[in-house]
């Protein structure tokens, strides 16, 4: 289901290109503790640590396809396709985070719309799944605005680096909902 080679998606507002160590400095510059407050992993504390984080994200080729989110030449954040499932013809969009300067600007929506369109038209998906922290109301509101339907809460869904567990709220968009959107 995932393409065998990296690809770039571009729209009028954002460009998604394969995440690489060259994005580390820009990505680290937009990351801060508030950006990472609702994520199940810690903020890389240095540019070299961000490079390691990028290499780790990129090494999971069978389950993850990470992108840098760019606005013009600036790195605004990152997002990924996760867990391609050819039997159920679905993929998850997640690990999306943007620097605070990009919050509320429509960049997140534009990036997700590029990924959704690609998932339904190029990957042949019937469903795209999302999950978010139950306390991340901003993310949940953004998913509602995209047309995603809330499925419910999954308890102890994602292990955090500190040994605790995060619950997740699951959402999805079906192909028929996307084409009618």
Structure description:
This protein is of the alpha+beta class and 181 residues long. Helix content is 28%, strand content 34%. The chain has a single domain, classed as 3-Layer(aba) Sandwich (Aminopeptidase). The protein has helices at 24-30, 47-58, 107-121, 137-146, 175-180, and strands at 9-10, 15-18, 64-71, 74-85, 90-98, 127-132, 149-159, 165-174. An eight-stranded mixed beta sheet has the order 1-2-3-4-5-6-8-7, sandwiched between helices.
User: What is the tally of beta strands?
Assistant: 8
Q: Strand portion, in percent?
A: 25-35%
- Domain module count: 1
Radius of gyration: 15 Å
Q: Identify low-pLDDT runs.
A: none
Count of runs of 4 or more consecutive helical residues = 5
Pairing-aware structural class of the strands and helices?
Answer: alpha+beta
Overall shape: it is globular
* Sheet with the most strands, sense and barrel status: 8 strands, mixed
CATH topology value: Aminopeptidase
Following the backbone from N to C, one meets helices and strands in this order, namely: EEHHEEEHEHEEH
Q: Termini distance?
A: 24 Å
Strand adjacency order, main sheet: 1-2-3-4-5-6-8-7
Summarize the structure.
The chain has 181 residues and is an alpha+beta fold. It is built from 5 helices and 8 strands; from the N terminus they run ββααβββαβαββα. It has a single domain, classed as Gcn5-related N-acetyltransferase (GNAT) (Aminopeptidase), CATH 3.40.630.
Question: Can you lay out the helices and strands and say which pair or pack?
Answer:
Elements: E1 9-10, E2 15-18, H1 24-30, H2 47-58, E3 64-71, E4 74-85, E5 90-98, H3 107-121, E6 127-132, H4 137-146, E7 149-159, E8 165-174, H5 175-180
Parallel strand pairs: 5-6
Antiparallel strand pairs: 1-2, 2-3, 3-4, 4-5, 6-8, 7-8
